[in-house]
Amino acid sequence: MKIAAYVDEAGEPVSLYRAGHLHLYEDPSGNFRRVKEVPFELNARMRLPEVKSALETMVADLGDDCRTLLSGEIRGLVYSLLQEEHGFRVWRSPGPAAGQLERIAREDAALAVARKRELDERAFAALFSSPSGGCGGEGAVGRRRSKEALRAVQSLTESLGDGHFRLDLAGVLARFKNANSKDVLLPLLEDGGFRRLDISCDHLPRWFERKLADLGLRAQVTPTARGIQALVEHLPR
C-alpha cells in the first residue's frame, strides 16, 4: 500500500495551502518507508484552473496506486477536488506522520471497502429507476440484464473462498423494494461464475427449478428456521 503525507519541517501534517513537503510512503514488507518526495505547491491566489492543474500533476506523480492522503486539513476546495475528481481518501490526524501510517492504512482499507460497497449498492438500486418509457419498459429490462447489473448483483454476495458464494436473497429484496427475485438471481445464475452458491430466501420462486435445468445447474434445498436454504452447483459434465 502507498500513502501520501503532506507535512511541515517537523514531519507534522499540515494543510495543502501551507508550505510543506509531500512525501510518498510505501509498505512493501510490513513497514512503511518513504520512497520519494513529490513537488507540490498551492497558494490562496491561484485560480481554479491552476489549482486543478497542480492537483492533476500531483496525482500523476504519486501514481495510480496511491489514493490515500494524510494532511493537516480535510475540508475545502482542494480536498473536495481530490476526493470527488480523483478518488482520494483524505485523513487528518495530529502528531508525526511517520508514526501513524500503519494505523491509517488499516482504517483506510476498511473505509475503501465500505465506500465500494456503498457505490455498488447505489449502482444496483439505480438499475430499478424508471426510464422515460416507464418502469416496465425494455430499457429497464436491458439494464437489469447488463454487465453492470451482474457486477452490482455480485457485490451483494459474500465470498466464502474457492468459488463459494453466499447470497441473502430475502435481505436484498427487503432493502431494494423495486427489485424482484429474477433481477437478483438471474444475472448470477446465467453468468455461472461460481462453484457453489448458497441462497437464503423466504421461498423459492416458481421459475427457479426450470431455469436451473436450462442452465445445467442443480440445487439442494433445505428448510431452515427463516425459510429456505438452496445450495446451487453445476451439474457434472
Oligomeric organization of the protein chains: single chain
The CATH fourth-level homologous superfamily of the largest domain: Dinitrogenase iron-molybdenum cofactor biosynthesis domain
Look at the helices and sheets and give the structural class. alpha/beta
N-C termini distance: 42 Å
What's this entry about, in short?
The chain is of the alpha/beta class and 237 residues long. The chain has two domains: 2-115, Dinitrogenase iron-molybdenum cofactor biosynthesis domain (Nucleotidyltransferase, domain 5), CATH 3.30.420; 136-234, no CATH class.
Please specify the SSE layout and strand pairing.
Elements: E1 2-7, E2 21-26, E3 33-38, H1 48-62, E4 68-71, H2 77-86, E5 89-92, H3 101-126, H4 138-144, H5 147-154, E6 158-161, E7 164-168, H6 169-175, H7 181-191, E8 196-201, H8 208-215, E9 217-224, E10 227-234
Parallel strand pairs: 1-4, 4-5, 7-8
Antiparallel strand pairs: 1-2, 2-3, 6-7, 8-10, 9-10
